[in-house]
Amino acid sequence: MPVMTDEGAETVADATVVKDAGDALDTTIETVETSAADEPETVTIAETDESLIFTPAPKPAGRRWVVPAAAGIGAALLAATGALGWQVWQQHQIKNASQEAQRAAVSYAQVLTSIDSNKVDENFKDVLDGATGEFKDMYSQSSVELRQLLIENKATAHGVVVDSAVQEASKNKAVVLLFVDQAVTNTKLPDPRIDRSRMKMTLEKVDGRWRASKVELP
User: Fold this and answer.
1) What integer pLDDT is reported at residue 11 of this predicted model?
2) What is the DSSP letter of 39?
3) What's this model's pTM, rounded to 2 decimal places?
4) What domains does the chain contain, in order, with CATH numbers?
5) Do residues 179 and 143 lie in contact, with contact meaning Cβ atoms separated by under 8 Å?
6) Residue-level pLDDT at 58
């Protein structure tokens, strides 16, 4: 029987270790392959827009009243806003009408209180052009007698409105209060005399123009 040296013994021992390690590795590989074969095949899902479809959960039936209620509130707010807008527009129109009527009253009062015996017909024409209704009828009836009186007395007058205010107004009718200073001369009063008077004038909008329908001296 051959005698094994120390180096040989070490070689045999190393070989045995290697063999044992190899057998262990083969066993491990078989185990892994078997486990892999037993596992289900993995499926990869392509990431496209149509791959996953999400269905939203139905809303609770108890909250369905929210939409009709919100719509009702919106409609109410819209109606209120429309009504407020209409009122503002109406007020705006009345304010404009009031200002227009006041300007027309001031201008007409000065025409009415100014006269020149040398231009009586022209003066009367201007007065009648700015009149309507009751006042126009009254002035037309008295104009013949008044014309003769002015010419005979060589009367002149010049009126100036020193103040005015709108008493009431609508889109087509207004009442204006005026304070007028009138300088008057005639054959008996060669030096001008100042007459101060108050005038209450009712105006109506006719054919787009403000005309005096009534003139009072309160």
Assistant:
1) 40
2) S
3) 0.61
4) 85-216 (3.10.450.50)
5) no
6) 57
Query: Residues 124, 144: contact at Cβ < 8 Å?
Result: no
Q: What's the token pair of residue 90?
A: 């109406």
pLDDT of residue 129: 96
SS3 per residue for 57-112 = CCCCHHHCCHHHHHHHHHHHHHHHHHHHHHHHHHHHHHHHHHHHHHHHHHHHHHHH
- Rounded to an integer, what distance in angstroms lies between the CA atom of residue 209 and that of residue 104? 9
How many other CB atoms sit within 10 Å of the CB of residue 210? Answer: 25
Write the secondary structure of 121-174 as one string of H (helix), E (strand) and C (coil).
HHHHHHHHHCECHHHHHHHHHHHHHHHHHHHHHCCEEEEEEEEEEEEEECCCEE
Q: Which residues of the chain have pLDDT under 50?
A: 1-22, 24-52, 54, 62, 65
Query: Could you give the CA distance from residue 76 to residue 69 in angstroms, rounded to a whole number?
Result: 11
